[in-house]
Amino acid sequence: MAKQSQKTSVHFSSDLEAILDRVYGNKSDSTLDRAKTSIPPPFARKNPGSQELKEALAELRTRRERAQGSLRMQEEINYLREQISALRKLGDQIDQLRQQIAVKETQGQPSTLSEAG
């Protein structure tokens, strides 16, 4: 029986040494250490990929700024169109009032603004 316990303790110590080697890296040429230190390709940081991402983000920002600028310009154009329309209506009203005044003057009636309104 003593031999069996010695076998298990030898087996246990070799497993313990393998675990300690993996954790603390006592063996620098072990395949487990190399596997631990290598980063899988999807998680590896690549400069070309990150550079492409930065360029894409910069282009996206530029497009967004242009779109916002276009939107602001379109809003300004719409506002100016409304103002032009209001001014045209006022111009038409002024012309109508002038015609009314001219008609009243030809008929010999005194022209006052209170009558025209």
How would you sum up this structure, described in words?
The protein has 117 residues and is mainly α. It has a domain at 49-105. Helix content is 80%, strand content 0%. The protein has four helices and no strands. It is rod-shaped and about 125 Å long. The relative contact order is 0.04.
Indicate the topology:
Blueprint: H1 2-24, H2 31-37, H3 47-106, H4 113-116
In angstroms, what is the radius of gyration?
45 Å
Averaged pLDDT, please? 77
| Helix/sheet category | mainly alpha
Task: Estimate the helix proportion, in percent.
Answer: over 70%
Which overall shape is indicated by the principal axes computed on the Cα atoms? Answer: rod-shaped
Number of strands: 0
**Which regions contain 5 or more consecutive residues with pLDDT less than 50?**
none
Strand content: under 5%
The biggest sheet amounts to: none
Alpha-carbon distance between the termini?
124 Å
Helical run tally: 4
- The H-and-E topology, N to C, reads as HHHH
Notable characteristics:
117 residues, mainly alpha, coiled coil
In short:
Keywords: Coiled coil. It contains four helices and no strands. The protein has about 120 residues and is an all-alpha fold.
